[in-house]
Prior knowledge:
CATH topology of the largest domain: Arc Repressor Mutant, subunit A
Structural class: alpha+beta
Oligomer: single chain
Mean pLDDT: 80
Strand content: 5-15%
CATH class of the largest domain: Mainly Alpha
Number of strands: 4
Strand order of the largest sheet: 1-2
Largest sheet: 2 strands, antiparallel
CATH architecture of the largest domain: Orthogonal Bundle
Radius of gyration: 21 Å
Number of helices: 6
Low-confidence stretches: 102-106
Helix content: 55-70%
Distance between the termini: 52 Å
Number of domains: 2
Amino acid sequence: MENFLENAREKILLLDILDKSKDKLTEETLSTFVLNLELMNYFDFRSHLGFLQESNLVHSYDDVRITEEGRRTLEVLREEVDEKLLKDVEERLEEYLKVVKEPLKIEYLGDFARIWGSEFQITIEGQLDREKFMNSYEKIYNYIKKEMKGE
């Protein structure tokens, strides 16, 4: 019986997280958040999310969103989860979304063209963007070389 109640609370917690999230959350972003806070394990997370989707309480395409039926269900059942936990998760969610959002704003203006076979020419606009791109590329290239050599 206790396991049943814990599973129900975890599902309500997922609904609450989705309800309070103003931004779109991918399944990956949501699972990373939930697992980092150790709110549940990965298998429970997948199971609960699947249940919520099948029950039409959330829908998931490119991102996961709570449905209106999910919101109504949450309003009735929210009191089953400790208020302090809900507040703590809400605060951490706000912090997490600020951090997760930042890397999405980074982009390079440029283009690429195939020269021959598997050779490409990459054109990056702006000196700063070129330098950032080259630094990133060199790190990745050196890492791959190192891994292939087995160092």
